[in-house]
Amino acid sequence: MDFISRENYLTSKDTLDAARISSNDVDTAANNKWIVCYHTNWSQYRNTPGKFYPEDIDGSLCTHLIYSFSKMCKDSSGWTMCPYEWNDMDESWAEGMYTRFNNKKVEQPHLKTLLAVGGWNHGSTDFTAMLDEGWDAVRTWAKNSIQYCLDTGFDGLDLDWEYPAKETVDVSPQKDYERFQRMVEIVREEVNRVPGFLLTAAVGIGVDKIYHGPDGENPSYNVKNLSDNLDMINLMAYDIHGHWEDKTGHHAPAHNKMTDTRLDYTDSLEWIVENWLVQGADPQKLALGLAAYGRSFKLEDPNNNGYMAPVKLNYAGLGSGTAGQYTGEGGFLSYYEICDKLLRNGWRSIYDNEIEAPYAYGEGDWVGYDNPTSIVYKAKMAEHYGLGGIMWWAIDLDDFTGSFCGQGKYPLMTAAKNYWHNGYTTTTGKPISTQSTSTSGTGSTPTSSPGGDCVSGQFYPHPELCDHYYLCDNGGNVDFTCPPGTYWDTANNYCDFANTIDCCNGQRPCNQ
């Protein structure tokens, strides 16, 4: 697999430098630092107090709200968009969910709203069918979809095709890789005819999504193409691990767990961001996805409850943890449901310093999740890489009532907003008790710099490992890893190809 091309890598460095000077020409809060918040239209069906309506959204915590989802359909004019739920559209007797969602802009005039089309359950069939009809059909869809968004009160369109050229709930043929690129270009051309209208996309983050496979399989995306044509790329930086595997693992680790036998350098947010940059993404057009939920497992042995613990598989070959009381999906728990387990069911929480995220176990189940501490760490990562935004899936999964976690309303989103827009890490309420793991090797635990106190915001080489480097944060160093095949260039403060860096075959200090 052609994992990294030097041309793309050097291009990404130039792009990163330029992007810090000129970002998207889009009005946003806090110096163009986006906070994208997805709302799910099925959260209205949950049991109280998990039931969630647009009126429950705290618009002050977001800059951009995205309504999930609409679907592809055809009418007499050709391909267009249609509502998913029976109450999305207005009726004579009641406002629809679209209108109630867009009413948040009256309360918070800074907000922009977008309508997402697609989603996991939507699949690829209709996208592929439209592409089969040719570029005129795509242009008709683009025009109709933009008008549909405008007619229903939205300021933009979010593309959520999961995934071009991949098999998921159905199959997208290999040729959809090239065709999706042209589709995005056509939609961009039509969007440019409507001043201020936004075009974004939610994208998968696996290695197969941005690199050609070992047998020539196409990826889903041409990263440079997306970066050139979208206002923001929402990285779905979660579901790295989950109940489809036979061992426990965190769905969104900031860094690799070095003892994880599944390790292939794709298992962390660090890898995700660095490789999108390597492939030519403008960092100011990347929003790092944050999850207000956890992925849970059923333990094979409740007494063996650490990271990589064996999972008890069901008849379908899944190791799903018990469904949440309100979300009702096996292998999935909202943050407020996790708090409920910790505070009322006696679950134990462990903060893993190596991956910079917590996990918890109890009642025979195990769940990886994020708390305010790990969320702030990830916001710092986004800042470190110069990204243009952070993104939430989903706003209805945080403790929006403030009745579960003892941390106030929206504790995760509040912690992220406080850091991302205001630069501070104060959280409300009493933190849920966790025990920290000890780490060894090349984990991400803050550590002292070799020369004593470090200067906050400065980079330092790792004293032993050439493919690692430190970022000083409040007097302690945070360990980052370069993409595979690259070493840290201390003179220029970026990762460059190993054969261009004199580093004694990858080990410091050099033995003379």
UniProtKB/TrEMBL annotation:
It comes from the Eukaryota. GO terms for cellular component: extracellular region. Residues 33-423 form the GH18 domain. It catalyses: Random endo-hydrolysis of N-acetyl-beta-D-glucosaminide (1->4)-beta-linkages in chitin and chitodextrins. SUPFAM superfamilies: (Trans)glycosidases (SSF51445), Chitinase insertion domain (SSF54556), Invertebrate chitin-binding proteins (SSF57625). Residues 451-503 form the Chitin-binding type-2 domain. Signal peptide: none annotated. Transmembrane segments: none annotated. Residues 431-451 are annotated as: Disordered. It comes from Oikopleura dioica. Belongs to the glycosyl hydrolase 18 family. Chitinase class II subfamily. Pfam families: CBM_14, Glyco_hydro_18. This is chitinase. Residues 433-451 have a biased composition (Low complexity). GO terms for biological process: chitin catabolic process; polysaccharide catabolic process. PANTHER family: CHITINASE, CHITINASE 12-RELATED. InterPro entries: Chitin-bd_dom, Chitin-bd_dom_sf, Chitinase_II/V-like_cat, Chitinase_insertion_sf, GH, Glyco_hydro18_cat, Glyco_hydro_18_chit_AS, Glycosyl_Hydrlase_18. GO terms for molecular function: chitin binding; endochitinase activity.
